[in-house]
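Entry for the shared binder. Reason: the reviewer on the internal report wants the predicted structure included alongside the sequence.
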Amino acid sequence: MRISATTIALTVDDVPASSGFLRGHFGFREVAAADGFAKLIHEDAPEVVFLRRGTEVLPQEHRDRRAGGVILAFTVGDVPAEHERLTAAGVAITMPLRVDPWGERLFQVTDPNGVVIQLVDWVTPAD
């Protein structure tokens, strides 16, 4: 099997709000949109699709669910610089910058629909 693209599809209440958040703060481009749908691309990340909750394309048992328990994680080159940039832009940091014992340096923000976005890089863990 050859996979030609990877798409993450998230169900939200306000598609334009989540699309605007990724475009405005993370450099994604919206390449397709319709009522209740937006497809975004970034040269360094999987495609992201936002679907409005209740959309008929979703399986019946999933139509009323919101994206929950999901973290959209992006590995970046300089987490402290991204933290500073997003803070300066007024984005609320919903999990403070930290370094885990295994060397993962990360922080999280949350989009207007509650989608958690985590930025991470790797450092040498302190012993």
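Summary line for the report: Residues 7-56+66-122 form a domain with the 2,3-Dihydroxybiphenyl 1,2-Dioxygenase; domain 1 fold (CATH 3.10.180.10).
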